[in-house]
Each structure stands twice: as structure tokens, then as C-alpha cells.
Design brief:
about 230 residues, mainly alpha, Zincin-like, 3-stranded mixed beta sheet, 9 helices
Length: about 230
């Protein structure tokens, strides 16, 4: 499964690894660099994944975070937070991953799933079940994730667009073209800056700048909520 998914992604040549962690929590995450971690809690209880398609949706979502460089952006936020006052530091930390990053990962993931031959609607089914079981109380949600109901709706919308690329159990033979031209998103491609031309510093400043903006947004959100 993981081999099929990584083949149809934007960075198939990364040293991809998937690791299973014995933990009861319902969770999967990435630290970037092609490393994806899955908790055994995903396979237990009322919220347990029910099919290969659902597991593929979760893996595709984490792969998407890697390909979109969200992990490095998160590190940029944490670096910036050390320079900020205590309240803003807390806001910067809470803002990673952001809801925008989560939405971007959702868009990528439905395409990856569809191109690898897994149901693109599986992710929406997971979050619809999550909403049914847990609801969508904004007081209880993670700051960096959309409400369960909102996430299910957006994933359903993206899945309908990606359905045309889905062939059950088979990799879409046109996956390379569809990665850059599809109905869900248009991939921007990699930076053309080369080593020694300022790419590293520019990327760092861009990350820190984005982190500052997200931290400001988080602080404003906290004010609205009276925190």
C-alpha cells in the first residue's frame, strides 16, 4: 500500500519510511523527510479504520504534509516562537499545523489516493464517522485542525473532483501528468533556486514570515475567544 502511494506523489524519490507505534491514541503524523508514523490506536475501537481505502487516506494525508513541506514550516514557527513573548509564543506553537496546511494536505491526499487506486472518498468517510462519534465542538478541537464536520464536507468535495482519476486497485497510468494538472489543484513545482543562490536563507525568511503571520492570526483568535 505505502509503496503504491509514494509512487504517485510529487516526491517519490524521497527515502520514504512508515513506522508503526504501539500507542492507544487515534493518530498518525510525520516529522518530514519521508518518515511517517502510525499509531496502533488507529485500528482499535469505534473509530478504527475499516478498510484499506481508509488507511490509504490517512497515509496519503501524512505523505501530503511531507510533500508540501509543512513539517519544515512547523519548525520555522517553533524557531520564531523562541523570539516572541510568552503569549505569542503559545499562539505560534498552537498554530502549527495550520488549518490551511491541513486543507492543502487534504487536497493532495485525495489525488494521491485516487491515482494509487484507493477510494478518494475514504477520507471523508473517516471524518464523517468522527463527527458522528465525537461531534464538532470547537472548544474541544485541536487548534490546528478543522472541525470534524467541516473536514468531512471539504474532503467530500475534493473526492468528487478526484473520482474521475480513480481505478480500483490500479495505479492510474497517467499519474505523472495528473500530478501537475488535475481538477483539485495545480501543483506549483519546486523552487528553481540552486545552492549558493540564496535559496536556503530565502526559504528560511519566508517560513519565519509565514510563521509570524500565523502567530498573529492565532493571537487574534485567542482574543476573540477571551483567552
Amino acid at each position: 500500500m505505502f509503496n503504491r502511494l509514494k509512487k504517485v506523489t510529487h516526491k517519490a524519490d524521497l527515502p520514504w519510511e512508515v513506522h508503526l507505534i504501539d500507542n492507544h491514541q487515534w493518530n498518525a503524523f510525520t516529522i518530514g523527510g519521508g518518515k511517517v508514523f502510525v499509531y496502533t490506536g488507529l485500528f482499535k475501537g469505534k473509530l478504527a479504520v475499516r478498510s484499506d481505502d481508509e488507511l490509504a487516506a490517512i497515509l496519503a494525508h501524512e505523505i501530503a504534509h511531507v510533500n508540501a513541506r509543512h513539517a519544515s514550516e512547523k519548525q520555522g514557527k517553533l524557531m520564531l516562537s523562541k523570539l516572541l513573548d510568552k503569549k505569542l509564543r503559545s499562539a505560534a506553537y498552537e498554530a502549527s499545523f495550520t488549518t490551511n496546511q491541513e486543507d492543502e494536505a487534504d487536497k493532495y491526499s485525495v489525488i494521491y489516493s485516487a491515482l494509487a487506486g484507493y477510494k478518494p472518498s475514504a477520507g471523508a468517510e473517516i471524518w464523517a464517522r468522527m463527527h458522528k462519534q465525537l461531534g464538532s465542538d470547537s472548544k474541544d478541537r485541536l487548534h490546528d485542525h478543522p472541525l470534524n464536520a467541516d473536514k468531512a464536507k471539504s474532503l467530500t468535495r475534493y473526492a468528487k473532483l478526484a473520482e474521475q482519476y480513480y481505478h480500483s486497485g490500479k495505479i492510474n497510468k497517467n499519474y505523472k501528468t495528473l500530478l501537475t494538472n488535475n481538477a483539485v489543484f495545480f501543483h506549483q513545482g519546486e523552487s528553481t533556486l540552486k545552492a549558493g543562490e540564496g535559496g536556503g536563507f530565502l526559504a528560511l525568511f519566508e517560513t519565519l514570515g509565514n510563521a509570524y503571520v500565523e502567530a498573529e492570526k492565532a493571537k487574534q483568535e485567542q482574543r476573540k475567544r477571551g483567552l
